[in-house]
Design brief:
The protein is built from ten helices and seven strands. By secondary structure, it is α/β, with parallel strands linked by helices. It comes from Streptococcus macacae NCTC 11558.
Length: about 220
Amino acid sequence: MTNIKGLLVMDVDSTLVQEEVIDLLGDEAGLGKQVAAITERAMRGELDFKQALEERVAGLKGLPESIFDKVYARLHFNKGAKKLVAELHARGYKVGLVSGGFHETVDRLGKEADIDYVKANHLEVADGLLTGNTYGDIVTKEVKLQKLKDWAAENQLELSQTIAMGDGANDLPMIQAAGIGIAFCAKPIVREQAPYQINQADLYQVIEIIDAIKEDDK
């Protein structure tokens, strides 16, 4: 086994990609504004994430399974996303995604960007239609933190050798636990509490933070 040097775990919606997938699904269901308003409040930490997710997913009932192809076509990686992953791999890092979004799109993003690990929610489908329910564990802030710990342990890494990055309140526990915690174009509550910030939508700036820290440690 190659000696792994580090691990980056990042959020997906509004971090890896520019969009919020749940909002796009809501848009397709004709509930765009209502769903986006709930998302915004949840990201600011004003609503319980699990409750907010269930409320939004319920509105998707009856959408065809083919909706995922339609939504995937509307997604855009943030600037520097694939370049960041390639550079981290070249430096001996693993990269993981943790998302309050859905495996139906996150798995495809992970494959396209050559990501090592993926954890997201599952939407239930029956007879080719969304049921308005999820199944399995909901990816809460606690689950995001746990995956950071699990993937670090799997690679014999200390948490001090990890990086965590996201934009919403449910990313804060992993951001605060990682060796390098980064708020990416984040909500005010996250910017206030994260050790590092990237305020331009350019993911490659993670490399600049890593290199600056290394320089300071010399």
